[in-house]
UniProtKB/TrEMBL annotation:
Protein name: Insulin-like growth factor-binding protein complex acid labile subunit
Keywords assigned: Leucine-rich repeat, Repeat, Signal
Signal peptide as annotated in the record: 1-21
Protein's gene: LOC117568699
Pfam families from the UniProt entry: LRR_8
Amino acid sequence: MQSRQVLVLVLVSLTISDVRTKDVQECEELSHKNYVCYEIESFEQLQHFVQEDWQSVKIVNGHKAIESDDQILDKMSKLRQLDLSEAGGVSLGERGLRDLIALQQLNLSHNELDELHAKHFADNASLVSLDVSHNDLQFIGRTLMKQLSNLVYANFSNNAIASVEPDAFKGQLYLQHLDLSTNEQENITIGSNANLRYLSISNNNVRDFPWCRLRGLPKLEELHLHSNWLETLDMAIFYSLPRLRVLNVSNNNIYTIQRNLFVGPGPDVSPQLQVLDYSANNVKVLEDELFNRLQHLESLDLHYNQISKISATAFRGLTKLKSLHLQDNSIRQLPDGVFGNLISLQLLDVSKNNIKQISANVFGDRVLRQLSQLDFSHNNIEELHPLAFSSLPYLQQLRLGRNKLISLDIRMFAPLRRLQLLSLSENRLTDIERDVLDTLDKLSELDINNNQLTFLPATFELPQLRRIRIEGNPWQCLCLDELTAWLHGRGVSYASANSAYYSGRKALCVVTPLGQCIRDLEAVRAHRIVESYEEI
Ligand SMILES: *[C@@H]1O[C@H](CO)[C@@H](O)[C@H](O)[C@H]1NC(C)=O
Ligand SMILES: *[C@@H]1O[C@H](CO)[C@@H](O)[C@H](O)[C@H]1NC(C)=O
Ligand SMILES: *[C@@H]1O[C@H](CO)[C@@H](O)[C@H](O)[C@H]1NC(C)=O
Ligand SMILES: *[C@@H]1O[C@H](CO)[C@@H](O)[C@H](O)[C@H]1NC(C)=O
Ligand SMILES: *[C@@H]1O[C@H](CO)[C@@H](O)[C@H](O)[C@H]1NC(C)=O
């Protein structure tokens, strides 16, 4: 008994010491000239390890932080990259990293730093990339930034920065990426910078500001202002930002989109904007010719607003547009021609709205050769004009699930020769005719689950079919047997293991007193098959 307990104790202490081996201070070579050092408590200690030819060091500390003891760190003067993001905290003392005169990339992320001073860096520092994200900085001053005049990339995200000293970045001739997201700024006070391309002030407390505040950023291409408190946007953005290509104002409280927002850069010069993300705001109306000037726009995201009214000419002029997101709004009606002439459109999502009817001319009469994905699911569509999709012969995916369709017309699908995916789940279909199925000769996925189907035609082609969903219909059991035998024979998958229908928790079909599968709607009605299924 006694000796056995001793043995157990020994084993336990062995495993603990195993886990803790990294408690030992040591450095390992990761790749040629690149090292990782563990459990380093001070820059002075680090200096004992670093050799002349080392290029980069990453510090990984499990329990301690790294401190400066204000020694001269001349042995590290050739180091190019220092990653302290896993050092578990840094205090920079008086000298900081002043002796690391060759340092080009510094990662100070996740270190609880509340201040950063010019004295911590070499004069005329060669630093090109600085990541100080995830710290507690409150302020960015001019003297600090002046010391870091060679920066190309600066990431100050996830701090508590409430102010930036005006023109702090003015002297940074090479700065291209500036990330100030997830801070506490109310006002935009960046001032000017000759070369900045990317600026993010997303997830701050900005309420409103005129674009002219950004006038000093003539090369800016990407501006991220999402997740602030903006309610309106000032007019004429491109006068101030003539090169803007990406604008993200998602997740604010903006209640209109005004045509005069898109004015500039010159009366005859069209804006370069390619991506506009206006999602998750409170826009209610899309007016006439709203985006007319955005001839280079490729992606327009308006999902999750409160759009209920769209002018027939709202999207006019968007001849380069490739994706249009309108899902999650309150659209009731689509005016004739509203998507006409969007000749580059590849993807259109109008799901989760309140559309009852799609008329013949919503897509205009010109063939939209690029449109391959169309989503109208989750609306209230009862009336789908048989010619509604006649200008969309290149469609590959069509989603019409969760609507109120009762029947399908051969004319709806006859033009859709390239359709690969068709979802008609959760409608009220009672019958699908053989002609309709036979036109879909490229179809590989078909969803007809949760309708009111009791049978399918006795024979049909669907030569490419690989997957089908059929559950949730009041199939006559004999018809279902025929169908599943056919599906097995063709190697088409239909059962999904975790569905209540296939695990026996919900009924898959109705047993009828008839000796065969009845393929006649009148007879099906007379036998009240749908009603008996609903009673199960
Ligand atoms: C800094 O380190 C963090 C955490 O290791 C990492 O996610 C981030 O990409 C690094 N920053 C740069 C600029 O490489
Ligand atoms: C800073 O460095 C640049 C070149 O890297 C040099 O032209 C300039 O004179 C230096 N300035 C100072 C104050 O040392
Ligand atoms: C800045 O750092 C944050 C946090 O690590 C990261 O998510 C973000 O992508 C970085 N920004 C840029 C422009 O690289
Ligand atoms: C932001 O700017 C406005 C107008 O310039 C000024 O009235 C306001 O006090 C500023 N807010 C802060 C927090 O600096
Ligand atoms: C815009 O910001 C949202 C966050 O609100 C993000 O989900 C989306 O991907 C961004 N869009 C672009 C085009 O960067």
